[in-house]
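From the pipeline queue, job 12 of 40. The input is one protein chain; the requested action is below.

Action: predict structure.
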Amino acid sequence: MKQLQRLLVVLLFEAVCVPHSAAQAKNTDQQIEAANRQLEVSLVIDKPKIMLGEPVYLSFIVQNESDQDLQVLVGGDYRNSLGRSETFNVTVTKDDGKRVPQPDAGMSFGGLIGPQKLPAKGNYVFRLFLPHWAAFEEVGNYIIVAKRTLKLRKYSSNRWDFNETTIDVRAQAEATIEVVPSDRARMGEVIEDLGTTMLSARWDKAEAAADTLSYIQDERVIPYFGRALETYDYELKFKALGALAKFNDDGAFQTIKKGMETKGEEIGNTANEKVANQLAENIRNAAAAALAKSTHRGAIPFLLSRSDPSEGVRISVLHVLGKMKPEEAIQILQEMVRDTNERVSKEAQRYLDLFSYRE
């Protein structure tokens, strides 16, 4: 059984938002405020002891001990290069006071947003992926502090009205984690467990396992991602290609090449053939992006040799050409200027113009 570490922290209250109207609205806010005073948050780590290079998830648990059903606004914060939930603030500090470096998530573009029920005598759990906030470089003991402003309202089965005010409550919880030296045999067991879960569990656990496995820089993950690409699961195919791009390995390269051959009939659970074909095109685009990122000696030559009906694949080729030496890229760019797709031809001309400017 996994050990859990839990530390309850009473919520810190912010000023209550002023309601738009009326006594009924005021009474509702008072009810919510009363319920808020019976909320607790905790931070639970899936594994309180991990090896260097071993990813782990956290659970930020909001517990409602009141008799009032509430709802909390979630989402709108994950569209960045990592998929990190930007409405959280998570810091990790070594017990000697040294702050752990935080990976750059790039620009944030929001995402879908909506309410989730926070039931009376129940909870709502936010799942956080620790590598999104901390890149451990040393063994030792660390303190993790997670903060979030909870946007709360009384529960309603109707759609959330974004024009209504919320009661905003600052919540904070913390926990400790121990990082120990990596052990190849133990890491192999972790990889086997995650790989098996990714390929056999229900979709939510499978995707979480895939995300975790993709952060392990160990060549033993490659066969599992190869098998993921052979499934009919669109999301697993997509995640597998992103993970394989990180390896300068013949097996990883050959698997990405297979991704470039994806067809609609290899995608499951789709509404019709048109949708399946579009998803297959997305997978080929992901494979092209993986080849562009790969450091394998055969990746770029293979990508440049591709003739794919997908606009996205051809755009990926152009972006690679734009980073090459003019004498290596100009001939192919001149051919691609004649592409029947206007976006592709214009992008090819843009790169030609840039090379001309550099000269």
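Job complete. Residues 184-321 form a domain with the Leucine-rich Repeat Variant fold (CATH 1.25.10.10).
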